[in-house]
């Protein structure tokens, strides 16, 4: 049985594109593995509180002198337990202002704990939760696979991105596939306009028409004059 954790971090509720995609991912997982145990956490709809002066010592050093610190540590423990149990993590990650949503960043702030989910080594911080797979579904308004925008690219591909600390060290986190979605009307318009072999196809159609015309003409009928048009042809 696969344990799956699905995170949604969009602030857009039902209008969220990434949420539709995480829903589709859930459907696919259920279809392939009807016994999969799926936990969904919507940190976009119910955000995790940002770190504060009171909660940082709780999460980084386990110090719980105040009620807020105790609550933060309890929440962090719960989020880490969810992560630890999951074999597959699906993350809905919309791009907000050239990065991940702050709601998702806060989740990382709560689950990245030294000696618990990562450790420091001579070659830097590395994740200790091994053997997990992650699917990051990123949505964004712009295109970042071409031209100078590639410099911005996929936030998860940045060497220092926290996603790398989940045992994905060294893995290529660049997007496997960039699907471009447009409103139906624009998509149809573009498809017709940008069809790469438009010219070649038009030539093939014209050549076929000419061939059929020639085949149906009596063997010694005079050839239509170039530029003569239909009327001219009739007169002949
Ligand atoms: C606050 C905000 C900031 C955004 N910033 C960017 C951006 O920097 N680059 C971009 O390509 N799209 C940006 N977008 C567009 C979103 O990435 C896009 O609408 C995406 O579908 C959002 O995913 P969601 O619908 O799941 O929230 C932004 C949208 C919002 C609401």
Summed up:
The chain has 236 residues and is an alpha/beta fold. The protein is built from 7 helices and 7 strands.
What does this protein look like?
The protein has helices spanning 17-32, 55-61, 67-85, 102-111, 184-194, 198-216, 229-235; strands at 3-8, 37-42, 88-96, 99-100, 118-121, 124-127, 133-139. It has 236 residues and is of the alpha/beta class. The chain folds into two domains: 3-181, Rossmann fold (3-Layer(aba) Sandwich), CATH 3.40.50.360; 199-235. Strands 1, 2, 3, 4 and 7 form a five-stranded mixed sheet that branches. Helix 2 (55-61) packs across helix 3 (67-85). The longest helix has 19 residues, at 67-85. The termini are far apart. The site of flavin mononucleotide has 15 residues, from helix 1 and strand 3.
What layout of secondary structure does this protein have?
Elements: E1 3-8, H1 17-32, E2 37-42, H2 55-61, H3 67-85, E3 88-96, E4 99-100, H4 102-111, E5 118-121, E6 124-127, E7 133-139, H5 184-194, H6 198-216, H7 229-235
Parallel strand pairs: 1-2, 1-3, 3-7
Antiparallel strand pairs: 3-4, 5-6
Helix pairs in contact: 2-3
The structure holds flavin mononucleotide (FMN).
